[in-house]
Amino acid sequence: MDNQTFMHQKQRPVTKRAEFRKTAEDYLTRLVVRLLAKTPVTPNAMTWIGFSITLGAGVLIITEHLLAAGFVVLFAGFFDMLDGALARGTDRVTRFGAILDSTLDRFSEAALLLSVLSIYAVRATEQSTPVILIVGFALVGSLLVSYIRAKAEAMGLECTVGFFTRPERVVVLAIGLMLSRINYAFLVAALSIIVLFSFITVSQRLLHVWRQTKN
Question: Within a 10 A sphere around the Cβ of 106, how many other Cβ atoms?
């Protein structure tokens, strides 16, 4: 078995996951995009609306309305799918729109995690110190996952691999926020999952890029 065949077989499951995410996204947004296409709303406007909703979720987190914050995070995640789907559906895909979307996505994740950080920073107890570190690692891991792809693609390399990307992080964080109404340990567990699998995804992407540059 040559190296190219080996790489193809190794990446096939990841490709299937990416295709599944894309199909699910199209299915969830199809009807709304058809309605939005008949309005003057632009894809960039949808990006800003989704970002504003995420900031609202951040305010809910800071004020410790975590159950509501979890639902708002999911709602904002839906808007995050709409802007790209609307751009593709109306043939209004632009390079600036892609950069704006990516920038506000990073800003959104940082805002949410910093909002969670504020809860434990205000308490400033010995028990909160490990959680603060976990949130910090979650922020670093999340940004690295996106950075590696952006840097690789800027160099002309393909880097869509990885089983724990932004949609997965959003869902896990939202679930952690909603379950924190029962016990804050669920939020800590969700953050720990984000840390673990974000860094696994970082490793996946680095390995994938290395294999491309090696050949």
Answer: 15
Distance CA 209, CA 105 (A): 23
Q: Which amino acid is at 194?
A: I
179 has a pLDDT exceeding 70 = yes
Position 121 confidence tier, pLDDT thresholds 50, 70, 90: confident
- In whole angstroms, what is the distance from residue 5 CA to residue 80 CA? 35
Task: Give which of 204, 205, 130, 195 is closest to 169, Cα–Cα.
Answer: 195
Overall CATH class of domain 3-214: mainly alpha
Higher confidence at residue 31 or residue 154?
154
For this structure, is 105 an active site residue?
yes
CA–CA distance, 77 with 52 (Å, rounded to integer):
12
Domain boundaries, the chain: 3-214
Q: How confident is the model at residue 26 (pLDDT cuts 50, 70, 90)?
A: low
Residue 191 has pLDDT above 90, yes or no: yes
